[in-house]
Each structure stands twice: as structure tokens, then as C-alpha cells.
Amino acid sequence: MKERLDKILVSRGLVKSRELARSLIIEGRIFVDGRKITKAGTPVSDVSEILLRETGVPFVSRGGLKLDAALDFFAVDATDKVFIDVGSSSGGFTDCLLKRGARKIYCIDVGYGQLAWTLRQDSRVVPLERTNIRNLDGMVQQKDPKIEREVFDDLKMKR
Predict the structure, then answer these.
(1) Residue 155 has pLDDT above 70, yes or no
(2) Is the separation of the CB atoms in 98 and 121 below 8 Å?
(3) Fewer beta carbons within 10 Å, N or C terminal of the chain?
(4) Under CATH, which architecture does the 2-52 domain have?
């Protein structure tokens, strides 16, 4: 049976997300049966040998690398702080902040099911999926208890 290469990489546990799989494939770091594959949708047999060259990406996506560099440059200490990751997607920023000791992170995204499974399982991560940041104020005005308690009280935001 054949399946997309990016899906197989995730199902075999070689990478944490399809987004990261696609990035690695495009970068030419994935080899199937000795051949470099550069298209994520390439059909691959479930018995094929897949090799992953060293990634150097310690986060669920490359977004974590960008934030990591910015936090270093601006000397930001994330330890025991609460953050909002707006447009969290697969969670690269969230992963970076967790590894730097963040106490809690609210992952707000209009999408659904994109946040890496490892982050979903972390008690410090609060996924707010199918949520548009522009509607957050309206949700508070409607007294949505989850938003009220989870985001605004914890972050001490104005209501």
C-alpha cells in the first residue's frame, strides 16, 4: 500500500508534524530507498526504507527557530511566564517557549487539528482552535467562561 511521504514520516514517528515533514522533504533531507525525494505528496510504499538526514530543528516547526533567535537577541526570559501564540499552527513558537520554561501558553488559531500532538498533551498548553483573535473580545462580552477564565484572567488583560 502506498501513502504520501509526509504522512508516512509522521506515522512512523520520524518527525512531529506534517509541516516539518514537508520542510525536510523540500530541503532534500529525506531519502526513500536510497533516492532523495523533494515532493511531500510522493506516494511511498509502507515497506520502503526511509532515511532522515540530521535536521538540526529542535522544535515541531521552523517557526521555533525564529522565535528562539529573537528571544536570545532581545534577552527575553520566558521562565514561569504566560504567553499567547496567535496563529499557532503546528506550534513552533509554543514549543520554543515551553523549552524555555514558560508556565502556560494559549494557542489561538482559526484552524483545527494543526497543533502538534506532543504539544496538545502538555498541560501547560491551552489550545483555542477555531478561534479568530479578532473575535476574542466578543467572546468575552458574551461571557464565554472558557475564554474569560483561561485567557483574560490568567494574562490579566483588560476586558
Answers:
(1) no
(2) no
(3) N
(4) Roll (3.10)
Please compute, for residue 143, the number of CA atoms within 13 A of its CA located in the half-sphere on the CB side. Answer: 0
CATH number belonging to domain 63-155: 3.40.50.150
Give the angle subtended at the CA of 147 by the CAs of 100 and 89, to the nearest 5°: 50
Distance of CA 119 to the CA centre of its chain: 7
Sorted by where each begins, the domain ranges of the chain are 2-52, 63-155
Q: Considering the entire predicted model, what is its pTM?
A: 0.59
| DSSP secondary structure code for residue 108 in this structure | E
**Strand pairing of 43-45 and 50-52?**
unpaired
Residue 28 to residue 24: CA distance in whole angstroms = 6
Query: What 3-state class would DSSP assign to 32?
Result: strand
Instruction: Give per-residue pLDDT as tens, 46-75.
Output: 899 998 877 566 888 888 888 999 999 999
Q: Is 44 helix (H, G, I), strand (E, B) or coil?
A: strand
Q: What does the alpha-carbon distance between residue 67 and residue 111 come to, in Å, rounded to a whole number?
A: 21
User: Minimal CA–CA distance to 80: which of 100, 94, 95, 52?
Assistant: 100
